[in-house]
Amino acid sequence: MNRSRHVIISKILDICKNGSNKTRIVYQANLNFKTVDTYIDLLLKNNLLKIKQGKNVLYETTDSGKILLDDFKKIDSQLSQ
Fold this sequence. Notes:
With about 80 residues, the protein is mostly helical. It has a single domain (about 5-75), classed as Winged helix-like DNA-binding domain superfamily/Winged helix DNA-binding domain (Arc Repressor Mutant, subunit A, Orthogonal Bundle), CATH 1.10.10. About 60% of the residues lie in helices and about 10% in strands. A two-stranded antiparallel sheet has the order 1-2. A hairpin with a 5-residue loop joins strand 1 (about 50) and strand 2 (about 60). The longest helix has 17 residues, at about 65-80. The two termini are about 20 Å apart. About 20% of the residues are buried.
């Protein structure tokens, strides 16, 4: 079964709450590198993720991204009742 776009975005935002590299996102979200690049670009463009430069490139969920993630979780809980 294919996952919807909001489910994938929600998963990526959740994975990146405390910072995550691209490989971790790929494996935990069960995506491939080509697909994850598209989603990361979308999330960066909409200020839902930010890049933390250091020894490695890490992606971190912004405050706006955390709010959106909470909204997704509320919607999912309402629909599952």
